[in-house]
Amino acid sequence: MGHVDTGATAVISDDTRRLVARLAAADWVVAFTGAGVSAESGVPTFRGTDGIWKKFKPEELASMDAFMRNPSLVWEWYAHRKRVIAGIQPNPGHYALVRMEEVFPRFALITQNIDNLHRRAGSRSVHELHGNIERNYCVSCGKPYGNEELLRQSETPKCPACGGWIRPDVVWFGELLPEDQWNASVRAAESADVFLSIGTSNVVYPAASLPLLAKRRGAFLAEINAEVTPLTDTADVFLQGSSGVILPDLVASVVAARESAERQGTPTHT
Ligand SMILES: [Zn+2]
After folding, report:
1. CA distances from residue 154 to 70, 147, 149 in whole angstroms, order as listed
2. CA 161 → CA 56, 152, 165, 171, distances in Å?
3. Which of 89, 111, 114, 172 has the most CB atoms around its CB within 10 Å?
4. Which residues have beta carbons under 5 A from ligand 1 (an ion)?
5. Residue 174: per-residue pLDDT
6. How far is the CA of 139 from the centre of ligand 1 (A)?
7. What Rg value do the Cα atoms of the chain yield, rounded?
8. Would you state the torsion angle of the CA atoms of residues 199, 201, 203, 206, taken in this order, to the nearest 10 degrees?
């Protein structure tokens, strides 16, 4: 990219300006995140790139059928992923979303990511549509287990309470989304003044229906993504780029706009 010296410190697009104005006046904001946000931290896709797992497709390992057929194979795959993810850190996009939780009167974060990076960054109001790889549960009695105790064992873990196999608490192929997380996400999407779709390709349903639902219910729909997606034409604004760069600037602008509106005691609607 060439550098144009205009004397200005930054060029703000019309879309950014419109989004800042909406966020400055918003009471209820929902952020919806996908794989792009994790990728910016270096979370791999675990699709045919690393070592011995090269010969497996996720579809062949991430299902209850696969687990019951070969628990140790599936557990080892997840133990590998758990260790890789444990060594990865949240990025500035994650931290900007933590800041948003403090800025807006009501805020919810809906994520399709299972890596727990939003909670590790400090977000509290998180709805996890596809589970969380740092949690596990017994397939027989449902008892929950953390990672640390299980990753120390060399064997595929079994539940001390009932002897059942312990599986990762992630949504596998052919499984429904966790009902409480889904219902909370639908309620948030229906109520939002502004809905931010961030780093998601918007092709995995039913999650991908949430931005559309929000817009139908009157939310201002903003998309932040590196690439154009099936949602882009529907979105009110599209900010192209990485969330780790766009979100921190966005939050800073919104905070400044809200503070200035507060000082003047005037509404921030444009
Ligand atoms: Zn059990």
Report:
1. 16, 13, 11
2. 32, 18, 11, 23
3. 111
4. 138, 140-141, 143, 159, 161-162, 164
5. 93
6. 7
7. 21
8. 10
At 167-209, the pLDDT tens digits run 999 999 999 999 999 999 999 999 999 999 999 999 989 999 9
Distance 68 CA to ligand 1 centre (A): 15
Position 27: which residue type?
Answer: D
Query: Active-site residues: which are they?
Result: 130
Tokens of 142: 């449902």
144 CA distance to ligand 1 middle (Å): 9
Q: Are 114 and 147 in contact (CB under 8 A)?
A: no
The band of 7, judged by pLDDT with boundaries at 50, 70 and 90, is very low
Q: Is residue 119 a contact partner of residue 92, using CB atoms and an 8 Å limit?
A: no
Ordered DSSP codes for the chain? ------S-S----HHHHHHHHHHHH-SEEEEEE-HHHHHTTT----SS-SGGGGG--HHHHSSHHHHHH-HHHHHHHHHHHHHHHHT----HHHHHHHHHHHHSSEEEEEE---S-HHHHHT--SEEETTEEEEEEEETTT--EEEHHHHHT-SSPPB-TTT-PBEEEEEPPTT-PPPHHHHHHHHHHHHH-SEEEEES--S-STTTTHHHHHHHHTT-EEEEEESS--TTTTTSSEEEES-HHHHHHHHHHHHHHHHHHHHHHT-----
The answer on pLDDT for 10 being more than 70 is no
Going from the Cα of 75 to the center of ligand 1, the distance in angstroms, rounded, reads 16
